[in-house]
Description:
The chain contains 10 helices and 18 strands. Helix 2 (41-52) runs parallel beside helix 6 and helix 2 (41-52) packs across helix 9 (370-383). The chain is α/β, with parallel strands linked by helices. It has helices at residues 5-13, 41-52, 89-106, 124-139, 149-155, 182-194, 239-244, 308-321, 370-383, 397-400, and strands at residues 31-37, 59-62, 78-79, 117-121, 145-148, 170-174, 178-179, 199-201, 206-212, 215-221, 224-233, 252-264, 272-274, 281-284, 289-300, 330-341, 347-350, 356-360. It folds into 2 domains: 25-81 and 83-108 and 182-251 and 343-415, FAD/NAD(P)-binding domain; 117-178 and 254-341, D-Amino Acid Oxidase, Chain A, domain 2, CATH 3.30.9.10. Flavin-adenine dinucleotide binds next to helix 2 and strand 12.
Amino acid sequence: MRYSALSIFLQGLTGNRRWTPAFRAPEPKPYYDVVIVGGGGHGLATAYYLARVFGVANVAVLEKGYLGSGNVGRNTTIIRSNYLLPGNNPFYELSLKLWEGLEQDFNFNAMVSQRGVLNLYHSDAQRDAYTRRGNAMRLHGVDAELLDREAVRAKLPFLDFDNARFPIMGGLHQPRGGTVRHDAVAWGYARGADSRGVDIIQHCEVTGIRRENGVVTGVETSRGFIGCGKLALATAGHSSVTAAMAGLRLPIESHVLQAFVSEGLKPFIDCVVTFGAGHFYVSQSDKGGLVFGGDIDGYNSYAQRGALSLVEHVAEAGVALIPALSRLRFLRSWGGIMDMSMDGSPIIDRTPIENLYLNAGWCYGGFKATPASGYCFAHLIARDASHETARAFRLDRFERGYPIDEKGLGAQPNLH
Ligand SMILES: Cc1cc2nc3c(=O)[nH]c(=O)nc-3n(C[C@H](O)[C@H](O)[C@H](O)COP(=O)(O)OP(=O)(O)OC[C@H]3O[C@@H](n4cnc5c(N)ncnc54)[C@H](O)[C@@H]3O)c2cc1C
């Protein structure tokens, strides 16, 4: 069933009784050409592009919970491609270009909103760093503009420009950045993959990886053994756990990241704003709630909730940036498990184990990467060759001395 304005109109005339489920609930088959572990954004996008672009449709996506129960449904929905380093920049720009055509491509309303992303700077040194980043973006053909203080004030007059500790001097603006309704991305990719023959199997936990003579032949699951030609891991915060099932130790740590939503307000902030002097960023959802977050909690955990100390920290940073927030009430908060890599950049690569492919290390920036990650991972699985924009995301880059350290902070995952 295709979704369109006409179909909504006709369904309305017939009491909305003819809508069909967006995707099936199939029983697992004994064998698939490709099994993808993890029904988050990346696993589903990989299945979608495998079927739609690379002609590989005998594919299963195995998800231990329900679709959207992981980070794809827990993030703060920001998309952007404002990266400095050559290894990152073309990849994230490919992703932004895919976001721009995604809703037409998979025929689902994901509420892609290119409302702009503004990173504020508060010192001369920070302005110089943002100028450098903006220039790198423009050299790669990515949109970037450096705004001075008055240009920022014209956009967002309610910011605390004269804060004694963190005066706002300007910002780096990417007009094509913005937000996307996060769980709709999971549903849209699932629907698109399912309609092309992919089996999406929810409540199916992978508990072991079977190898014969060193070659991966399938997975043990809570619904029995499933054989496969190729096995692809896209389990985000549980990447180390699933890779360990094949005896692989990853350069990844799992950390909690929290997000918050406020009570609904009238239209207030029409772009995404990030504070440059503390861990706080904010946008406004279409329902009116402010959506905001900060840094990871800073300790290893698999719990999808965080500590109160970070709640306090985020609230303080928010009020330092927008004093009016002091009168705002938090509505709810939650946490997700981040797969923090040693250099803050992801891994899309084959592993030393035959037939085992890895998509991991997204840290807290993997939502914006979803389309390009799925596309490039599908390319790797189907052709056994890296896509040109993802060549730098190798698993062995740490031992070879080629980290992609966007923040320049060294091999400490909790700092990226
Ligand atoms: C609070 C928060 C805010 C964020 N904000 C942003 C943002 O604004 N912009 C941005 O770009 N990124 C953001 N991120 C990061 C982004 O959400 C993640 O990097 C990205 O979603 C990870 O990829 P995924 O969607 O495939 O992960 P997930 O949705 O977590 O998918 C992985 C899936 O694997 C499943 N799984 C795990 N183990 C098994 C198993 N053994 N068997 C079967 N299934 C298994 C899990 O249940 C899960 O559904 C944020 C994350 C959080 C938590």
